[in-house]
Amino acid sequence: MNAVGIIFSNIHDQSIPEITRMRTMASVPFGCRYRLIDFPLSNFVNSSIKNIGVITHYNYQSLMDHIGTGKDWDLATRSGGIRILPPYITAYDNTMSAGLYSTRLEALAGILNFISRAKEEYAVLSDCDTICNIDLNEILAFHKAKGADITVVAKTEVLTRAMVGKQTVIETDEGGRITDIAEQTSNMSGSKYVCMNILIMSRLYLQNLVLDAIAHGYKNFYRDSMMNNVSSANFYVYEHKGFHASITSPAEFFKCNMQLLDKKVRDDLFNNPTHPILTKVRNSPPTKYVEGAKVSNSLLADGCVIEGTVENSIIFRGVRVSKGAVVRNSILMQDTFIGEDVQLNCVITDKNVLIGDGCDLSGHETRPFYIEKGARI
């Protein structure tokens, strides 16, 4: 695929502020062994996109540690490969905004130099909070067949009140041409196209769009740049039929992880031999199940030691669940230690958390109990 890939790593950090306090959204752990950036990165690599820029804002040390040279995604190449794009790559970029970027357009303005120097014909933009396994080559073929200026990937969803203000809703005509784009409001209902924040356009079109935004002081990509041209340009929707989830709140983060306990979801995301989801490889011993341990309907990474009971939970690498402990409906991130006779329900522990003997902690699926990185309880 003759395209440059652009990933926004910080755009949605405020959706889960507790978890992103010390990391970007892109490096948030997910599903036992992955980070959120693994999904857009894998979608790009599986579609032969080998020149990828990751736009950062702050707190991107863990993201750099995870990506490294990009060898785990076959991106450690002399030409192209993966590049971390911090704010203000050049002094010229610094003149575009009074401060660090806060919107998608400002982020793109900050990497205009990267966009203009790329040699690829097309540009693919993706957020990192969108969890899906998608063939971008099919979308490009659709884009060319429609003669589109921009193709937006969307998923048909039934709108709920919990989604108000968190989703971008797209209206189209019978041919799939976009007629309106708006944030969901309380008076919207029924099945609608919900934007997945994956877009394809020609690189030069993107470059001109950003220059026009700078000239007119535009801030919002959808509301300003796209809606100001919606009547004259050809903007189309490509409907994604497979699994898709967006991290819009701590409850959605919890829900998205728990959906992995459904085999159909796991098969859609991970069991496509031609489109694998790649991540950083770590060499750990197999998980050890001590006599008396009980595990049901759960996903466990390698390197764990289980002596107690684990039910309906997502367990990351290096977790230890001690004797007599019961972990239900919870997410335990890397190197969490659960003491003896602990009771957990609807709890999210960040990395390196220690929960001492006898603790009883419980949240709810709509408001999971979150324990910050390195905490001792």
Summarize the structure in words.
With 377 residues, the chain is of the alpha/beta class. The chain has two domains: 3-270, Spore Coat Polysaccharide Biosynthesis Protein SpsA, Chain A (Alpha-Beta Complex); 288-371, UDP N-Acetylglucosamine Acyltransferase, domain 1. The chain has helices at residues 38-46, 61-67, 91-94, 104-110, 112-117, 136-146, 203-216, 221-226, 250-259, 263-270; strands at 3-8, 29-30, 34-35, 51-55, 81-85, 122-127, 130-131, 150-158, 168-172, 178-183, 191-202, 235-239, 245-246, 288-289, 294-296, 299-300, 305-306, 309-311, 314-315, 320-321, 326-328, 331-332, 337-338, 343-345, 347-349, 354-355, 360-362, 369-371. The termini are far apart.
Domain count: 2
The number of strands is 28
CATH top level of the largest domain? Alpha Beta
The portion of residues assigned to helices is: 10-25%
CATH topology of the largest domain: Spore Coat Polysaccharide Biosynthesis Protein SpsA, Chain A
User: What general outline do the C-alpha atoms trace?
Assistant: globular
- Main sheet summary: 9 strands, mixed
CATH superfamily of the largest domain: Spore Coat Polysaccharide Biosynthesis Protein SpsA, Chain A
Mean pLDDT: 91
- Uncertain runs are 89-99
- Helix and strand composition category: alpha/beta
Q: So how many helices?
A: 10
Query: Can you name the CATH architecture of the largest domain?
Result: Alpha-Beta Complex
- Radius of gyration from the CA trace? 21 Å
Q: Bin the strand percentage.
A: 25-35%
The CA-CA distance between the termini, in Å, is 50 Å
